[in-house]
Design goal:
The chain is of the alpha/beta class and 427 residues long. The protein has one domain: TIM Barrel. The protein contains 14 helices and ten strands. Strands 3-4-5-6-7-8-9-10 form an eight-stranded parallel barrel, surrounded by five helices. A two-stranded antiparallel ribbon has the order 1-2. Strand 9 (335-338), helix 10 (348-357) and strand 10 (363-366) form a beta-alpha-beta unit. Helix 8 (271-282) crosses helix 9 (313-330).
Amino acid sequence: MNSCKRPLSREDIPKEIPYSDDISILSTPLKIGAKKVPNRICYQPMEGCDGSLDGAPGDLTRRRYLRFAKGGAGLIWFEATAIVPEGRANRRQLYLTRENADSFSSLIRDIKETCIKENGYEPLIICQLTHSGRWSKPNGKSEPMIAYNKPIFEKDAPLPRESIVSDEYLDSLVEKYVESAKLCEEVGFDGVDVKACHGYLLSELLNAYLREGRHGGSYENRTRLFLDSVKAVKENTKEGFIIASRFNAFDGYPYPYGFGDSGTPGIPDLTEAKRLARDLKERGASLLNVTMGCPYTNHEVNRPTILAKEEMPYVSIKRMIDGARAVSEAAEGVAVVCSAISFLGAFAPNVAAEGISRGDFALAGFGRQTFSYPDLARDIVRGGEMKKSSLCLTCGKCTELMRAGKTPGCVIYDREIYTKLYAEMKK
């Protein structure tokens, strides 16, 4: 796998992509509900698969988040944290319980204190609540819990019918989301994300056109668990606690297997995504994080890399910006995070600043870039630019580690840990 790309120049950025030389807006605060985020930079939920077997943060988990805290992001979107044990994506995925709550509380306190000490302000921290559904591996092997059989994934080996979760099971998850959210509030998170992206359970339900019963078919049925969970979390947490969601506006698969399919490859129909954004706002969401596709199956839709073959990387970046703008317009007043700008390298702040200035979205989301460059927010806010020597090369090695069941991180720059892990994996 090629591990480098030519540094971008200003001329590489197509005129269709928003761009500004003035990036000062990224340093301005933003009110989200009753809380305030000190700058417009969001560190996206990047799962480390390095918790303890009981779901508590491990040593590498703490290391990662303290690096993020020093890095100065105004919003740290904490990684996927399971709401039930059977819904964990791996044996070391985080899982907040009453028994390990103190370890989460300690980490959140240290994140905030570190950021205050290093940067002079306290970040907002959102916990991503998840049920992995089709991607569940709670015991180290695949134990899928699916909304329906999906031939584009399963091909000639369809999963057995018992893998399809019942309506009764789905109904029971609303209470699990509430329990997890209340624990998150207790340990110090500023809000929670009811995750519905990248083919995980709530995301797969959004495209469950072929499922029968109360959670499939119509828009109302496909969004039932998602919207009911958001509403219940809002009603059972204190005023000011942020309700958020990172959700797929477009799956990139053809109907009837993908949410937002227009019938033309690569071109989304955002009609239902905009309706969903309005419905989320109505039920109490004040923060939305727009993404698309799935990093496991069609990463080029939302995560352009040097390896993308189906379309030019800028096509997916523009598609994401357009999606974020559509959601912002549909749910006016809700803060929207735009993803997928890491490929832009040193020019990501320029694109993000113009997008924010013209109202396309409110915050710039950085994902894999934070693995390679945890100090990026501080450099943008203090120095007005990103250092080219630390930029993510979009090589995909962090995802390779995750797909192999290892602990993901930046193989290129974070050599202390991840170069060795990658070498061991390749053996």
